[in-house]
Every structure is written in structure tokens, then in C-alpha cells.
Task: inverse folding
């Protein structure tokens, strides 16, 4: 099973600041990594697929990078609606499909 | 547009059973594999199960193998999750999810979720 770790667990930032979230895989997942955003009371939303491709309708302030075992999600300038929990997920080797434990981005 | 609507959640005692349903519309359901994913406050997101478009392949997380069964009725555009021998750890919001490509392990579209609470 491929284990994903995310850092930091919590990121406290102000609107307008840049957010940098990390995801590390226990073994290479090539570029088969996605990022999801989850807000309370809502379904999770796909942001990035295949490491760096924005899903349909996702604003350009969200970007993903990385390959192999190290990945980054960057939010260039936080909007009020971006405060949420972010999960990475790999599909390179499954079953099982695995998620990271999440990074909570909250308001400083 | 793609719509996924889950139902069947509720409160059940430890050791009990529930059957979740997911009604799909807005795409050709019979050509897509489908997933169940759950969200718990303590553990975050966890993939639960996958079924091939025609039901010929099924995969499960170790945590539910042997207790949960995924199935589908393509004539009714509906996905199911039969959950038996429920334990407190199964308490979660359960989502059905559609992948980007019929056999992919990603989750492009999600339902609104159905809440399962297992109590002793």
C-alpha cells in the first residue's frame, strides 16, 4: 500500500497570502496524484489531477507540481473561500487507492 | 450534468447492516466504473470500494473486505453498498464518486453524501 503524508497538518494564513502544501508518497506514484478540497457540509472537490492539471472550473490561483514521491499544491493568493481541508490522493498503484491525512488551511 | 444522489444512511447498532444507494444521471452510467469513498472526522477521506462498469471486477479496502459488498444495477443507473457487521469505525459520511475515465482511480464527481452512524 502506498502511504501519503502531508505537511503541515495545519497552515494558518491571511487572505491574499500564498499557501504551499506538500504531499509525499512512500514510493513513486509517477504523476498519478490528485488534490481535493473539502469544506464542512460539502462534498469534496477535485482541484488537480495528474499532479499538475487543473480540473474543470478550478481557478488559476490553484497549481500543482511534482512527480515521483514529492508533490506540491500552491494557492497563489488565498481567497476567503479557500479556507478548507486539502487532501492528496494517489491512483498509480491500487487497490487500495489512498489519501493523505489532509492539511487544514485556516484563517490567521 | 452529472448528478449523484446517495441515500440509505442512518443510525444502526454495532453488528447491524445497512444498504446504501447512489442514483446516477447525466452520463452513461453503464460505461463507468464507480467508487464509494467515506469521510470520518478522525481519519479524513478513505476509499472504500470500486466496481467495474459491468460489475465484472470489484475491489475493496482491507478495512471493509468481507463485510461490505459493492454492486450495481445498470438498468436503473444505481450503485449500491451493502454494509454488514458494522462497527463504530464505520461511522462516516459515505459518498459515491465517478472517475474521470471509466477505469480510473480518481474522483471527479461526488454525491452529497449519506451519513452512517454506528452506535452501541
Result:
Amino acid at each position: 500500500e502506498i502511504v501519503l503524508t502531508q505537511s503541515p497538518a495545519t497552515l494558518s494564513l491571511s487572505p491574499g497570502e500564498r499557501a504551499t502544501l506538500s504531499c509525499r508518497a512512500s514510493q513513486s506514484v509517477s504523476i498519478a496524484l490528485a488534490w481535493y478540497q473539502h469544506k464542512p457540509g460539502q462534498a469534496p472537490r477535485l482541484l488537480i489531477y495528474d499532479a499538475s492539471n487543473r480540473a474543470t472550473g478550478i481557478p488559476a490561483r490553484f497549481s500543482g507540481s511534482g512527480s515521483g514521491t514529492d508533490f506540491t499544491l500552491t494557492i497563489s493568493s488565498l481567497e476567503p473561500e479557500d479556507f478548507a481541508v486539502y487532501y492528496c490522493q494517489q491512483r498509480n498503484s491500487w487497490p487500495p487507492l489512498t489519501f493523505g491525512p489532509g492539511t487544514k488551511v485556516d484563517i490567521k | 450534468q452529472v448528478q449523484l444522489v446517495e441515500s440509505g444512511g442512518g443510525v444502526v447498532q454495532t453488528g447491524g447492516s445497512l444498504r446504501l444507494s447512489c442514483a446516477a444521471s447525466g452520463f452513461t452510467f453503464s460505461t463507468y466504473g464507480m467508487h464509494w469513498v467515506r469521510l470520518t472526522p478522525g481519519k479524513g477521506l478513505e476509499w472504500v470500494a470500486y466496481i467495474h462498469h459491468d460489475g465484472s471486477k470489484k475491489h475493496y479496502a482491507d478495512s471493509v473486505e468481507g463485510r461490505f459488498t459493492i454492486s450495481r444495477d445498470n438498468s436503473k443507473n444505481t450503485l449500491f453498498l451493502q454494509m454488514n457487521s458494522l462497527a463504530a469505525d464505520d461511522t462516516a459520511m459515505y459518498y459515491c464518486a465517478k472517475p474521470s475515465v471509466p477505469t480510473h482511480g480518481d474522483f471527479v464527481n461526488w454525491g452529497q453524501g449519506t451519513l452512517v452512524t454506528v452506535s452501541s
Remarks:
- The two ends of chain B are 40 Å apart (CA to CA).
- The longest strand of chain B covers residues 18-25.
- The CA atoms of residues 37 and 73 of chain B lie 19 Å apart.
